[in-house]
Design goal:
It is a single chain. This protein has two domains: 133 residues, no CATH class; 274 residues, no CATH class. The protein has 18 helices and two strands. A two-stranded antiparallel ribbon has the order 1-2. A hairpin with a 5-residue loop joins strand 1 and strand 2. The longest helix is centred in the C-terminal third of the chain and has 27 residues. It is elongated. The N and C termini lie far apart (61 Å). About 2% of the residues have low confidence.
Length: 415
């Protein structure tokens, strides 16, 4: 940014011209009858000129310039439609002209942001058919689910206070609602990946995404989906198993970040290999049984989200309350209880304790894998209770193999 100021205002004028040419080039290529490459270049320059003049005579001139630009555009549109036998539909070019004016204004103070916005405008204008094709692939129920997810995320989340309370400040309404969004988002995003990238890609990336964010949340979400739509049992079951396998990568990265010297690499690789191998065998056996999925449930239902929020809050509160009733000797119990819901907290806290030599490497190793075993056990039980016996039967062998491997590593730590 400093080098731009050295050549002020010439570089700003050059940037304004370049951005006008960029968007104008696209409109010229699209054969817009309202404005082309020359018009957009002049409009961008008008915005920059307005910003220059406004610094001398007052910023009200920018408003006058925008109103004048809009008036000229609307008059031109009216005359063009009056003379044409086929009036234009939509206001894309008109809005593009108005945006281009303000981009020209923005060039004076924030040229990089102005350039980024201009590139986005050009891309949106150019990808007209692709965007319309993308939207046309969604049906009414799928659009409703997307809208409800945006409601949960963009409307409700910002107004929820981000303040901790309760035992040890463990409860936070903002964080609890984030978990609700994760639950809804995993299912919705995984379905969208499946819809546009095919069943194999949808399963792979849906599971990886779920494992990166929360394998426990993924298990709950897709177990619930299986209960609602049992014909998609294989699809949901494989996503759950891939999320379980991805968990080991996530906790390895967490430990490596907070405690590089806390070496649990080989045991985690072993668990990852056991889990991945069982998933691969199951996938090969079940691939021919895939059913093309149709969204027959609402993954972003507000009542479902509230029910989960209440359950999650109750578990967090109970765990935090127990901290006041156990001493140092109860660290293993806390590790087990923490791992039941989520392994991230115990992973990071154990890594820090080991890194600061507050507990031994062996004790940290033992507590960490006890939490892993608890998490595996809990997710299997969750799949049975929420998803039903058919889902549990499908994931039974990979679950047992993962559980036995984790238990073996935990017991090995005593020798």
């Amino acid at each position: 940014m400093h080098f731009l100021n050295e050549f002020y205002p010439y570089f700003h004028l050059m940037i304004s011209i370049a951005l006008g040419l960029l968007v104008g080039l696209q409109r010229e290529w699209a054969e817009s009858t309202l404005a082309g490459i020359r018009s957009f270049t002049l409009i961008s320059l008008l915005g920059t000129l307005s910003a220059f003049v406004a610094e001398i005579y007052g910023f009200w001139l920018i408003g006058v310039g925008s109103i004048s630009t809009l008036s000229i555009v609307l008059i031109a549109r009216y005359l063009s439609d009056k003379e044409s036998s086929k009036p234009q539909k939509g206001l894309v070019t008109e809005f593009s002209i108005l945006i281009m004016y303000f981009i020209g204004v923005l060039v004076l103070k924030e040229p990089l942001i102005a350039a980024a916005i201009a590139c986005i405008v050009a891309a949106v204008l150019h990808e007209k058919s692709e965007l319309h094709s993308f939207v046309s692939k969604f049906d009414k129920d799928e659009i409703r689910s997307i809208m409800q997810f945006l409601l949960l995320t963009l409307v409700i989340l910002p107004v929820i206070p981000d303040k901790s309370f309760g035992p040890h400040g463990a409860l936070n309404l903002h964080n609890i609602w984030l978990m609700v969004i994760i639950i809804s988002g995993i299912s919705l995003f995984g379905y969208i990946i499946y819809k546009f990238r095919g069943q194999d890609t949808g399963i792979l990336w849906g599971g990886i995404l779920g494992g990166i964010i929360s394998s426990t949340a993924t298990t709950l979400s897709y177990s619930r989906n299986t209960r609602s739509s049992s014909q998609f049992l294989i699809f949901n079951g494989l996503i759950i198993l891939i999320a379980w396998a991805t968990l080991y990568i996530r906790v390895f990265l967490e430990l490596y970040t907070v405690a590089p010297a806390f070496n649990v690499t080989f045991p985690l690789i072993l668990m990852m290999l056991v889990s991945s191998l069982s998933i691969f065998v199951l996938w090969r056996k079940s691939r021919h049984k895939f059913t093309r999925m149709k969204l027959q449930y609402n993954p972003t239902n507000l009542m479902t989200a509230l029910t989960f929020a209440l359950s999650y809050t109750a578990i967090i509160y109970a765990f935090s309350y127990m901290k006041d009733h156990v001493g140092d000797s109860g660290l293993a119990l806390l590790s087990f209880l923490s791992g039941i819901l989520d392994v991230d907290a115990i992973t990071l806290s154990t890594g820090r304790l080991v890194n600061k030599n507050l507990i031994s490497h062996k004790e940290g190793f033992r507590n960490f894998f006890l939490a892993i075993v608890a998490n595996i056990s809990f997710k299997g039980i969750m799949a049975l209770v929420v998803g039903g016996k058919p889902l549990f039967k499908f994931i039974l062998i990979p679950w047992i193999l993962s559980l036995m491997t984790g238990l073996s590593i935990f017991l090995y730590s005593f020798f």
